[in-house]
UniProtKB/TrEMBL annotation:
It is a single-pass membrane protein. Keywords: Membrane, Mitochondrion, Mitochondrion inner membrane, Protein transport, Transit peptide, Translocation, Transmembrane, Transmembrane helix, Transport. The chain crosses the membrane at residues 68-86. InterPro entries: Tim21, Tim21_IMS_sf. This is Mitochondrial import inner membrane translocase subunit Tim21. The lineage of its organism: Eukaryota, Sar, Stramenopiles, Oomycota, Saprolegniomycetes. Belongs to the TIM21 family. It is found in: Mitochondrion inner membrane; Mitochondrion membrane.
């Protein structure tokens, strides 16, 4: 009987011990495993800087410089070509072809010119004695610049031909003049007759504005 009682006490103690120990294992916090490595994680910025710091070989430097120079030359050529294209498509009044077009329109509307040459009248540039119209497109001209190199005056010469004969025309204008205004616009037939459509040379040579107005009234100008 005594032995049985001792056995029961031992079993009860063991059960109690298991009950107390089990919750402790259940409440134990999980352990985080850390991996330690001698190499640090690379920085992307440092890696990019190291890549950019690669030294080029002499051949690569020459090739890169040549490529940059080539693209710069292409860009400069494009700008120059664009300037000339715009100037040809949208010429100013101080260009020979533009002034020729304006002056020829005025000449073709002059009654005296129509009477001498007849109608229709054709205006063209330099006559090389050939039959190709392309050779007659060049307008003889003289450009006069000021001390700063700015174009201030333009003189042109062109030819006229009608059923009754030929003639030559001369025109000069200042950059400050309005459209349709000329220093002179004169036509001379092959018989030597001179037709003055506009002639403001005396007026422009006057020293004062009063003298210019007086000469305008004397010569029949406005």
């Amino acid at each position: 009987m005594f032995a049985v009682a001792n056995l029961r006490r031992a079993v009860a103690r063991a059960t109690k011990t298991r009950t107390l120990v089990a919750p402790a294992k259940a409440n134990r916090a999980p352990l985080n495993r850390r991996h330690f490595c001698d190499k640090a994680k690379p920085n992307p910025a440092q890696a990019e800087a190291q890549t950019d710091a690669i030294v080029l070989t002499p051949y690569e430097k020459v090739a890169a410089t040549t490529q940059v120079g080539m693209w710069a030359g292409i860009a400069g050529l494009s700008v120059v070509c664009g300037y000339f294209i715009v100037r040809e498509l949208f010429p100013s009044r101080m260009s020979p072809n533009s002034l020729f077009s304006e002056a020829s329109d005025i000449v073709l509307q002059n009654d005296m010119v129509l009477q001498r040459l007849g109608a229709p009248i054709r205006c063209y540039g330099r006559d090389h004695g050939g039959h190709k119209e392309g050779r007659r497109n060049f307008i003889e001209h003289v450009e006069l610049n000021d001390k700063e190199g700015n174009k201030t005056r333009l003189r042109i010469k062109f030819n006229l031909q009608g059923p009754n004969g030929k003639a030559q025309a001369w025109a000069e204008t200042y950059a400050s003049m309005n459209k349709g205004e000329y220093v002179y616009l004169i036509v001379q037939t092959y018989t030597g007759e001179i037709i003055k459509i506009q002639d403001n040379r005396q007026i422009l040579q006057a020293d004062s504005e009063e003298e210019r107005d007086a000469l305008k009234r004397l010569l029949g100008g406005n």
